[in-house]
Structures are given as C-alpha cells and as structure tokens.
Amino acid sequence: MAPILKPDLCVIGGGSGGLTTAAAAAAFGVKVVLIERGKMGGDCLNYGCVPSKALISAGKHVAAIREAGRFGIRVGEPEIDFAAVKDHVRGVIAAIEPNDSVERFESLGVTVIQADASFVDEKTVSAGGRIVEARRYVVAVGSSPLVPPIEGLAETPYFTNETIFELRERPDHLVVVGGGPIGIEMAQAHRRLGSRVTVLEGGSFLSRDDPELTAIVLGRLREEGVQLRDKAKVVGVTRGENGPRITIETGGSPETIDASHLLVAVGRAPNVAGLGLDAAGVDYDAKGIKVGPDLRSSNRRVYAVGDIAGGPQFTHVANYQAGLVLRPILFRLPVRERRDHLPHVTFTDPELGQVGPTEAEAKAAGDLHDVLRWPYGENDRAQAERHTSGLIKLVLGRKGRVIGAGVVGMAAGEITNMLSLVVGKKMSVADLRDFVSPYPTLSEIGKRAATVYYRPYTEKPFVRRLVGLLARFG
Ligand SMILES: Cc1cc2nc3c(=O)[nH]c(=O)nc-3n(C[C@H](O)[C@H](O)[C@H](O)COP(=O)(O)OP(=O)(O)OC[C@H]3O[C@@H](n4cnc5c(N)ncnc54)[C@H](O)[C@@H]3O)c2cc1C
Ligand SMILES: NC(=O)c1ccc[n+]([C@@H]2O[C@H](COP(=O)([O-])OP(=O)(O)OC[C@H]3O[C@@H](n4cnc5c(N)ncnc54)[C@H](O)[C@@H]3O)[C@@H](O)[C@H]2O)c1
Fold first, then answer.
1. What number does the ligand 2 atom closest to the CA of 248 have?
2. Superkingdom of the source (predicted)?
C-alpha cells in the first residue's frame, strides 16, 4: 500500500480555482497535493470560457466579412465549414492546455493525483487508492450544467456546455433553453455561423444586468435573426420528426417549437455528490459549500473557492478567491472577501460589462446619488470603427464616488477592466476626469461620462461671475 501523503495543502479540483491555488502555494515552497478526476483545466478550459470565446471569435469574423461593405470593401457571403470551426475551437484549447497540464504542475513540485476525491473523515481524503492527510484543504470542484425537471427531457437527446463544442455538423435550428450568459453567447455565435436559433427564456434575458444596457445586446441579436422569446418557460420535450419538439408556456395556451438540436443552459449545480462532505463535517446547500467571508467552511481545515463556494460563478472570481485563501493558509493572516467590486462580462457583440451594482441595485440599496451616461456615438474611435451602438453608465454614490459601472458596446470587456479598478479602489468621478486617456480610444467614454458630472457647475451664476471677474485681471 502506498504511504499516506501528508502535505501542507491538498487542493481538490484542477480547474480555475484549484490550479491557481496549487501553483501559487507551490511557488512558496509549500508541499501541495492536487486531485483532479477529469480534465485538467476544468470547465473554463474544456467546456466553458475558452471554447465559447473561440466559437464567438469565429462568429465575429463572419460578421466582420458581412459588414465589410461599410468600409468600401466588397466580399461575397462567407462560406462556413462548421467542422473546421470546431477544429479551430479544439486548437485554441490545445494551445492553452500545456499551462494547465499534469506535467506543468509536477514541474512546479505539485503531486498530482488523477482520480475522484472523497473525504473519509474531517481530516482525511481518499483518491484513487491514495490516502491524503493534509493540514489544510481547498475544495475547488466547480459546478455542472443544471438539468431541470422538464417533462420528457431525460428521454430526448439534448446538449449542454459539456457536449455542444463537440458537435461537428451545423445545427439547422438550434433551440436554446435559458437566456442567461451561456444561452445568449451561444445563440449569437451559432446564428452567425449559419444556424437558425431560438432562445426560450422563462423570465427575462440576462436578468443580472442593467436592462438599459441589455436592450442594446438583445436588439443586435434580433437584427441578426435570433428569435428571442422571454417569459417562455419550457415545460415539456418530446421527440419530433426531425429533432426535439419543445413545449412552452407563455401565459396563454401551450405552444410547441420544433428544433433540430436542443441546448440546455439553465444554470449550474454544485459538484457536491460523492465528495464526502457529510463525513468531513462540511455544511453545504443547493448553491454549494457554505463559507464565511474568509471562504472557510464549517470544518476549519477546509476552504472552498470558485463555483462550489456558492457565489458569483466566473473564472476571475475563482482566481480572486484562490488568492485570498492563500493568505490564511500560508501566512496565517485574516482575510475577508469583497463582492462589491467583482466585474463580469458577457461576450456577445456588442459586449456587455458590469462591475459593482447596476442603477436599480444601487437604488434598492439606498446608495444611488446620480447616474452618468455617455454614448459610443460620441466617441471618435467608435465612429472610425463604425461601432457606434453602445453606452456607458456610471453609478454614483455619495461625493461622486463611482460605486458601479456598466458598459455595452465594442470591446466593453476591455473597458470594464478600467472600471473594475475605479470601483475596486473606490475612486471618484474626479479621478476619472483627471487621468489622461489616449486619443482616440474607446475607453475615453469613461472620462467623458465623468465630465458630465461637472456640467451643472458651468451653469452656476457664482462660478460664471468668478470666471468673468478673473478674466478682467488679464
Ligand atoms: C459555457 C460557459 C462559458 C463560460 N464563460 C466564462 C467567461 O467567459 N468568463 C468567466 O469568467 N467565466 C466563464 N464561465 C464560468 C467559469 O467556467 C467557471 O466559473 C469556472 O470554471 C469555475 O472554476 P472552478 O475552479 O470553480 O471550477 P472548474 O473550473 O469547473 O474546476 C472544477 C474541477 O474539479 C474537478 N472535480 C469535481 N469533483 C471532483 C472530485 N470529487 N474529485 C476530484 N476532482 C473533482 C472537475 O473535474 C473540474 O475539473 C463559463 C462557464 C460556462 C459553462
Ligand atoms: N461571459 C461569462 O462570464 C459567462 C458566460 C457563460 C456562463 N458564465 C457563468 O455560467 C453561469 C451559468 O450560466 P447560465 O446561462 O447557464 O445560467 P443563468 O442562471 O445565468 O441563466 C439561466 C436562465 O435560464 C432560465 N430558465 C431556467 N429554467 C428555464 C425553463 N424551464 N425554461 C426557460 N428558461 C429557463 C432562467 O430564468 C435564467 O434566466 C453564469 O451564471 C455565469 O456565472 C459566464
């Protein structure tokens, strides 16, 4: 029998959160065991961010060719080889894979076990016949596609984010259940690559974002021919003649829609099954492992990061949390997670970014003092790029502090980086006004929105009188 492993740290799950934790801890010379049961890189690399952004990028090229006429360039309708597009997606994963590989982590000094991990008691984990007794554990086991209890779904073939990227023939009519970020990103990409696409959303589309901004994204999808049906709850699925037949409830009598392919994207379920959390004394619920602001579970040796920790489900959040838990684990320092500065971006065209509260959220919390807007149409670079549809909104708290910001438009994800710094560092409109933004860049819209705050000052009689008085002195 192999000897018991007794590392300082055992990380369970080799996705975004787990790999960041393991690599950073190993860099400090700490003994680390990493356990991964599936593909290294987890959801983000294999079934999530990376393949979805690669597919979106292919769709963007199609759109650019179709729009080339606006620049005086004449090209025909692009010919799309769907299987070759999937080769491109596979190629992007392959290019990133070495960073997340077993070989790389072993070269960093991490002991990697490729097996299913399960707690056997509060201090011990078993995986692939090995026993691990670590001083601390970081659980980063992620989430899986939620399969809703829709009648007939289990008996009908359907896709999730774990299978859709393997599909090599172009869907004739893709019906997407769920109008969250997965559904909307996948809908636009498939439409651009030549499929008919219908999205069925039981509530409202992209409901976590500002409706004033999402309206611009949804308008674009409709213009491109995506059928968007909100308040259309899917209640049943059967096998139709050419694929799944979907029944929706829209308030009136039920309606049916025929698809060639069905993609289910209705949220995520935490990967708690088989993890032995009860044996470990780790409390959990339907959202995942229950953690405090220090990301520690009810078992003081066990921390949780990423999707399993029950908070916002993004790779950058998993990475941020990985950075946080290392402080108590390595340096015995206290730590407190912040959520008010976490950004997210939906990679549609136009992109949609948000950091901190939306206007409605700030209002509901009683924190809203002002909202500043600046349209893309008033930005010279947006004009040169002919991408003038878009808007930035700065949500202000007391004394001109930027507590939230949303942006929709070309490269909104990149602009969200700057806004994330502004909100995270608790900056004010004065900071945005005073920094020098290179011309002509799209990011200038942040600065221009900030100047709106000062417009009323130019109208104040006192200020005008003072300027007039000073002018007399030459
Ligand atoms: C289609 C899609 C697109 C997305 N796009 C974006 C995006 O653009 N930007 C963004 O920020 N986020 C995006 N996300 C979300 C992002 O992928 C997740 O938030 C992120 O992967 C979470 O990281 P994690 O470490 O918590 O989990 P994961 O990356 O999923 O890693 C968990 C790992 O744990 C392993 N595991 C599970 N149970 C066990 C066990 N018992 N023993 C051993 N190993 C186990 C799994 O095999 C997996 O590899 C997207 C998600 C999807 C589905
Ligand atoms: N760009 C990004 O950062 C990005 C991209 C994709 C996914 N993600 C992450 O993955 C998570 C999961 O995304 P998601 O889109 O699957 O989930 P989601 O929870 O954001 O959206 C699911 C949608 O499905 C709808 N729905 C549920 N049951 C339904 C039914 N029976 N009929 C019709 N509609 C129904 C819900 O009303 C909801 O709007 C996101 O929350 C996000 O954290 C991030």
1. 32
2. Bacteria
